[in-house]
Amino acid sequence: MKTTDTEILICPGFKGAPEDHWQTRWEKNLSAARRVPMGDWHKPVFEDWKANLISEVDKAEKPVVLVGHSLGCQVIVQAAPEFKKPVIGAFMVAPPDVANPDIRPRHLLTFGPAPTDPLPFPSIVIASRNDDFCSFETAGDMANAWGSLLLDAGESGHINAESGHGPWPEGLMIFSKFMNQLKAPEEFGRNERN
User: Fold this and answer.
1) N- to C-terminal Cα separation, the chain
2) Nearest 5 degrees, angle CA 65-CA 143-CA 150?
3) Residue 183 and residue 165: Cα distance in Å, rounded?
């Protein structure tokens, strides 16, 4: 599916996505992309972030593809059952373990535990083997529960600008391949849920 036939909603995590983050770069370079105003980036409130994502999806005029990083991934999974407009895929990078009592800051625990129901749309989880916010094994368990394809990013940290993933061309190539495999709903309006 072409990116121009979709609305690509960028869902950053805790502290947002600064200028050199791959999500911000993708947002600037993909004409169909826009950032979801999740709420307070530095003191995230789960209910606000979830409600804001649902609102943005439900305003969409084209099929939606979600691009989440870190805490944004957990919001996607938590909000998925409540979307009224068609979401045709989710590309999720470095989901944190929001059930780990050692996670810092501790208020990130309010975003967990991660749901264990399969997502109602195709999805990919890209996880690192040395992410301080989630073990690779836990990311694999989440991906398995969600019915997501798990991709091993090796030792890539939290897959953000701090870990050297500013432009992240490899991620963009994976995203392009993912987009090519997505199918459009037969008719956008007819597939809306009541």
Assistant:
1) 25
2) 80
3) 29
Residues in the chain: 194
User: pLDDT tens digit string along 137-172?
Assistant: 999 999 999 999 999 999 999 999 999 998 899 999
The rounded distance, in Å, linking the Cα atoms of 194 and 192 is 7
Q: What residue numbers bound the domain in which 35 lies?
A: 3-182
pTM, rounded to two decimals:
0.94
The CATH number linked to 73 is 3.40.50.1820
Q: Mean pLDDT throughout 82-86?
A: 95
pLDDT-derived band of residue 131, with 50, 70 and 90 as boundaries?
very high
Query: What digits encode the pLDDT tens for the residues 12-43?
Result: 999 999 999 999 999 999 999 999 999 999 99
Domain count for the chain, please give it: 1
Name the β-bridge partners of 124: 91, 149
CA 9 to the chain's CA centroid = 9
Q: Which residues contact 54 (CB under 8 A, 6 or more apart)?
A: 79, 82, 83
Measure the CA–CA gap between 140 and 177, rounded to whole angstroms.
21
Question: How far lies 180's CA from each of 6, 81, 176, in Å?
Answer: 12, 24, 6
3-class SS at 22? Answer: helix
